[in-house]
Amino acid sequence: MSETKSSRQKHVAVLAFPFTSHPLPLFNLMNKLATAAPEVQVSFFNTAKSNNSLLSAHNIKLPNNVKLYSVDDGIPECHVGVENRHEEAGLFIKVVPRNFKDGIDVAVIETGKKITCLVTDSFLSFSVGKMAEEMSVPWVSFWVPAPYAFQLIFTWIKDQSLESIPGLSALCIGDLPKKALPRDQSQLAKMIRSMGVLLHKASAVVMNSFQEINPVLLINDMRLKFQNFLYVGFLSLPVPLPPPTVEDKTGCLPWLANKKASVAYISFGTLGAIPRNEMEALAEALEASGVPFLWSLTLPCTFVYIFINNQEAHKPNSYILSGSIGVHVTHSGYNFVCESILGGVPMICKSIWADNCMNARMVEQVWGIGVRVEAGLITRSGMLKSLATVFHHENGQKMRDAIGSLREAVLKAAG
């Protein structure tokens, strides 16, 4: 790209929502944009905790035109401790947009360049839309969860049927996140529901997904709602998944190499936790089934603690899904579903929170690439049945064929 005097004055501010899986896809999008336009200054605004996590967890070399800034997280200095992520998010929301404005002021002074565009997580729409208007700059909104969850913010859910909502006819009211329902009057729920009005002010809306895996009715409806509605692929992980490039001192990878499509990989995400009775039932089912398994638990430095049939090992999570994994037992978080698709691995879904139930319904009934646990609860008998379905029944082969086709569609779309 040729550099002009005008482009040298451009300064893009990227504003992150610093919780769960939100920061990483936006961080990766920012890096791609900065690499494609090296003459444009890019400033990334996030909390110190989240920035540190991104830098320590991912071996990413920042482009020379990128600088990271840490903004106020809203937690008072005298605060004894945050009880949970909901409290932490509530404290953060209270200082938005003031914290971002303060950070932007610093970046403008340091670079000598005024902000010419805002790129933000859609969860910040409750404030950044007005910021963009005040600054007289374009606003690009980036939606991190699944596109079908995006449809909820434009719809007032008032009955038990979703048949009339484009792209959601396969879902049930019970699949929806509680914060999408009118009866939830929490600060975060109100913030999410306000997006439907505010996002129409955005110059463009960007999806963390591939168009090829989404319902046609949903795609068409979104294009009617927005003039610039873009799909940019899975930005939480590389496409295709890379082969291992680090020395394996654990024996984990050779162990996997000898067990083609026969291993169960269990992971419920960084925040996922299932009740003790369900954990015990899962362990009993795995033992009774005789299926080789890896069970990961989150530890610092983004490593997972892995039990390889009573042996212990450490391995970066991105290297686990492979041709040796026959099923992924997961909470069906969107990033985990995307990773399973890229790995070509069917899923057994135990939903925990947020949009997990929506994702699980899509996995089972729309894409046909997995099953949900019976009644939403892990039991010994139910898990044994699910494992048998995936590994030994005709439906399991259909799942493998379906996820293989979906994977090929994604790889083709990614080029």
TrEMBL record:
Any one GO molecular-function label of the UniProt entry: UDP-glucosyltransferase activity
Pfam families: UDPGT
Keywords of the record: Transferase
Database matches in Gene3D superfamilies: Glycogen Phosphorylase B (3.40.50.2000)
Protein name, as recorded: Glycosyltransferase
